[in-house]
Amino acid sequence: MKAQTPKYFNSKLSIGLFFLPLSILYWLVSSINRIKSKPYHSKAKVICIGNITIGGVGKTPLVIKMIELLIKKHIKVGVLSRGYGGRLSSNKPVLVDEKKHTALDVGDEVFMIYKKFNGNVPVCICSNRAKSAKLLEKKVDVIIMDDGLQNYTLKKDKSVLVFDGVSTISNGFIFPAGPLREGLKSGMKKASAVVIMRKLNQSFEKKLSSYNVPIFQAFTEPKDLKKFKNKEVIAFAGIGNPQKFYDTLNGEGVKIKQSLEFPDHYEYSDSDFEKILSASGNMPILTTSKDYVKIPAKYRKKITPVEIDLKIENEKSLLDVILK
Questions:
Q1: Is there a single domain that holds both residue 49 and residue 179?
Q2: Using CA of residue 79, residue 83, residue 88, residue 93, what is the dihedral sign?
Q3: Residues 155 and 267 in one domain
Q4: 170 lies in a domain?
């Protein structure tokens, strides 16, 4: 499950110890679910893009990048997701179709992926990953599993573990004492490869290196921001870590006059957009691609989405690892 990182997560040992009994209970429940599970073995190759921390680390840009790389190799690829935040997320698999669905129906990230490839890549949402796989394997050779490293209903052939190079794993405790869904050792045992987003944290990389799993560095590059350089703008975002978005704008020389933050997967109302437009005056309004797919048509001309490219060092080697 995707969620925003609770405010009390920090590196202080005392905070973690206070919640430690609940963390042990969380770990026990997760372990029981894993032991009881009977994962489905799909006819298609299943590649999971997952993480062990609560909150956004950049999985979706990596999912998009992996789809692009597989398409270049003429491999038929599909995506399965829980469809978090979407109204249709349930135990029944649904193939995304923009003629029938909106971002609010299937989830903003899922709809963004669908739109990115103009509907040419099948995307399925369902809380039961096995049911999604049974539907997709009739259409594709490789299934990208967006999130779900801790889901045991579907066997993964390969798993790519994603970390944020800035926040890493914070205090290293399991939820709610810390930000981890599972322990680092447990997560690394599942990993075929590791991708560190944003920053190559050398001390953290050294820690991960002890697990003998190949590590790759990735970073994002915004598109078409040159025209906003040295200009004042209004920026808003409803994502797991809005500061990433603002840092991207600042890094390109964009001057953020005012920023407005909303919860992850937020369902915007007309009053929200009226507030944003009122604050902007004559200044440009910038937002993320994930937020833009939820904006009603009547507001879109006044708002610019910031498209992001993901660059992976040694991307060919990463592709070789997951296709091996």
A1: yes
A2: positive
A3: no
A4: yes
pLDDT score of 17: 61
Q: How many domains does the chain have?
A: 2
Q: Are residues 139 and 233 in the same domain?
A: no
Q: Which residues of 47-69 are buried (b: 16+ CB within 10 A; e: fewer)?
A: bbbbbbbbbbbbbbbbbbbbbbb
Burial of residue 316 (number of CB atoms within 10 Å: 0-12, 13-18, 19+): exposed
Six token digits for residue 220: 């994002």
Model confidence at 11, in pLDDT bands (50, 70, 90)? very low
For residue 25, tell me if it sits in a domain: no
Task: Please tell me whether residues 193 and 317 are part of one structural domain.
Answer: yes
Q: Report the pLDDT value the prediction gives residue 170, as an integer from 0 to 100.
A: 87
Would you tell me how many other CB atoms lie within 10 Å of the CB of residue 227?
Answer: 9
- Mean pLDDT computed over 89-100: 93
pLDDT at 217: 96
Q: What span, in angstroms and rounded, lies between the C-alpha atoms of 56 and 54? A: 7
Residue 23 lies in a domain: no
Are 124 and 199 members of one domain? yes
Residue 236: give the domain boundaries: 224-306
